[in-house]
Amino acid sequence: MKLIFYSLAILNSIDATMTFLGLKLSLIEEANPTMRFLYETEPLLFLGLKLLLSIALLVFGWKNVFPRISWFKPLIYTALSLYAIITCLHAKWVFQVIT
């Protein structure tokens, strides 16, 4: 479970950075209404909140703090899968921009 939390933290940081740059350069639009609102309110608030989540995931992994709820494991694996897909989408548009 520790590796999953670390992986999520890394993928979330990549997502935060790529989304922030993509929005800043007007290459993409934020699909998540909550994150779009944060970015439109204050771009650094958007980035800070995303990076704070990554730090929290790293701390939870480091401290071995994992909820013992039956639905938590499927939820965390789903989140990891979605972040992996999102990271691939970001890589695709970055590749399209630089080529």
From TrEMBL:
The keyword Membrane applies. InterPro entries: DUF5658. Keywords: Membrane, Transmembrane, Transmembrane helix. This is DUF5658 domain-containing protein. The chain crosses the membrane at residues 44-62, 74-95. Pfam families: DUF5658. It comes from Bacillus mesophilus. Residues 8-95 form the DUF5658 domain.
